[in-house]
Amino acid sequence: xxxxxxxxxxxxxxxxxxxxxxxxxxxxxxxxxxxxxxxxxxxxxxxxxxxxxxxxxxxxxxxxxxxxxxxxxxxxxxxxxxxxxxxxxxxxxxxxxxxxxxxxxxxxxxxxxxxxxxxxxxxxxxxxxxxxxxxxxxxxxxxxxxxxxxxxxxxxxxxxxxxxxxxxxxxxxxxxxxxxxxxxxxxxxxxxxxxxxxxxxxxxxxxxxxxxxxxxxxxxxxxxxxxxxxxxxxxxxxxxxxxxxxxxxxxxxxxxxxxxxxxxxxxxxxxxxxxxxxxxxxxxxxxxxxxxxxxxxxxxxxxxxxxxxxxxxxxxxxxxxxxxxxxxxxxxxxxxxxxxxxxxxxxxxxxxxxxxxxxxxxxxxxxxxxxxxxxxxxxxxxxxxxxxxxxxxxxxxxxxxxxxxxxxxxxx
Length: 412
Ligand SMILES: Cc1cc2nc3c(=O)[nH]c(=O)nc-3n(C[C@H](O)[C@H](O)[C@H](O)COP(=O)(O)OP(=O)(O)OC[C@H]3O[C@@H](n4cnc5c(N)ncnc54)[C@H](O)[C@@H]3O)c2cc1C
Description:
Bound molecules: flavin-adenine dinucleotide
Structural class: alpha+beta
Number of helices: 12
CATH topology of the domain at 1-119 and 179-252 and 344-412: FAD/NAD(P)-binding domain
């Protein structure tokens, strides 16, 4: 199939789409105003959590700001859709999760980069009776969904895994998971796609040319125009702005997410940890990533992604409370960037053909799950493009749900 597919955005989503297209024999051209994985895709923790855990009550972060959003009457209208959304997210997560080990081996082989892949079980540790109850309920939701992996870790078992852990830890729910190094993984996808015919180009897209109901070209800030048979917007937080050039703005809520990397005197046990306040994610060698949920969601205004000292100190304080030994570590990096979400904290990515155009596609709003969803998003989008806007029957309903319905009735 000979098509000029232009993918705007060299984040993990754009690069995964290019990779999956290339595997199907369709070369593409990726255009980015910055470099490969320069934004959130180069700064994430890059973990794949066990899908049933992500989509159960286990995943709630009961911060003050989340509780106030849940109490907001505006959230009521969104609440009704939540059940379907969770179900769809669950399916989307599974589509990628079950093939992570094999898919990543193949990506590494084709791209020629060690992406730092490994298994990383994840624990949600309870520090109070109330949270223990929520987590136990989450575990039984996972069980009643028919999922057998993972289990409850008692207080003593937690101590055995983490000698020196705070005596407040009452135990927790533990599930399988995976991790990669975000920049290398995204670069490897791009490099693998490149070896199969994809080209990568630097440039800021500022608009599109059209002929009837087809987008015919992508216009760059330099004035250059690239001819296109198909166009994909994988523009993350900039998707609102970019979709407006196609006639109507897709609603996108932008969150700022930060973390710090700390080098410890000795390796951290090979388990990721969540509490309701923060997270600790071990990396290879002696480094760990620390994250604070304090003040989450941190809604960004005007695409401001400057990092705050407050967030850094909070991440250190929360981790030290849990593991006093973390105080002996030294901060090696404070990093973060912007994420695109569906409005009002909802988990609804958009993945599909723009309803007003025959050949324009959108892949965005992956929130804090862009890595976990990168394989399924790349594969489904490649299937859609190859199928001229029609996806495989096995995921038809899922794609219908994820399609760009909010852009319907577009007045171009
Ligand atoms: C601190 C942190 C931790 C995270 N941890 C995880 C995790 O553990 N697991 C997980 O699954 N996810 C995680 N995420 C979320 C994940 O990083 C994002 O969901 C993912 O990177 C989104 O990828 P993307 O390709 O959609 O967007 P981006 O990475 O934002 O890429 C979009 C690209 O589009 C380009 N672009 C935009 N507009 C234009 C234009 N007009 N012209 C040309 N180029 C344009 C931008 O330059 C950018 O490179 C985390 C995020 C952060 C910040």
